[in-house]
Amino acid sequence: MSVFGAYSRYYNLLYKDKDYSKEAEHVHGLITKYRPHAKSILDLGCGDGALTEKIAASGAWVVGADLSRDLVTATHARGLPAVIADGRALCRAIRARGKVDPIFLEDVNTLPQALTDVLRGNDVLLTMGAGSIGGVSASLPRMLSKGSNE
């Protein structure tokens, strides 16, 4: 069993107190503010589809992606499209279609410069999550202001 197979057994226990409705409202607000005409969303790391389902209820077309077969199956059980995929493979597929150039960093301290190099005027960077990505999300404003004169 892969680590993601084992993880799926504990997923609901780990996220039992998560307010998916509140998080979906937050995501919807960000999309409305920064990309009001966006109609499709990729929920990378969709888990069991609870958040995916709430976002879809706002009228957006949402597809989930997760490494865990069990969690993708749970997302399907909600009547939502989802695929078994890891972020790197998915980004390579999107890049092949000419949509994005994924960037993977080995050192989180290089993130501010990487963002400065790639983000343009109307680009939106939305980071949410637990674990290491949650820590990055929380520290990103501080990291970006370090090198700024603003």
Could you characterize the architecture of this molecule?
- The chain is mainly alpha-helical.
- It is built from seven helices and three strands; from the N terminus they run H-H-E-H-E-H-E-H-H-H.
- Helix 2 crosses helix 3.
- The N and C termini lie far apart (49 Å).
Secondary structure elements and pairings:
Elements: H1 3-14, H2 20-34, E1 40-44, H3 50-56, E2 61-66, H4 69-77, E3 82-84, H5 87-96, H6 111-118, H7 131-146
Parallel strand pairs: 1-2, 2-3
As for the number of domains, it is 2
Give me the strand/helix succession. HHEHEHEHHH
**Within the largest sheet, what's the order of strands?**
1-2-3
CATH topology of the largest domain: Rossmann fold
The fourth-level CATH homologous superfamily of the largest domain is Vaccinia Virus protein VP39
**Number of helical runs?**
7
Helix amount = 40-55%
How many strands in all?
A: 3
Write down the Rg. Answer: 16 Å
Give the CATH class of the largest domain. Alpha Beta
Show unreliable segments: none
Label the CATH architecture of the largest domain. Answer: 3-Layer(aba) Sandwich
Largest sheet: 3 strands, parallel
- Judged by helices, strands and strand pairing, the structural class is mainly alpha
User: Beta-strand level of the residues, as a percent range?
Assistant: 5-15%
User: How far is it from the N-terminal to the C-terminal residue, by CA?
Assistant: 49 Å
Q: pLDDT average, as an integer? A: 74
Choose one word for the global shape.
globular
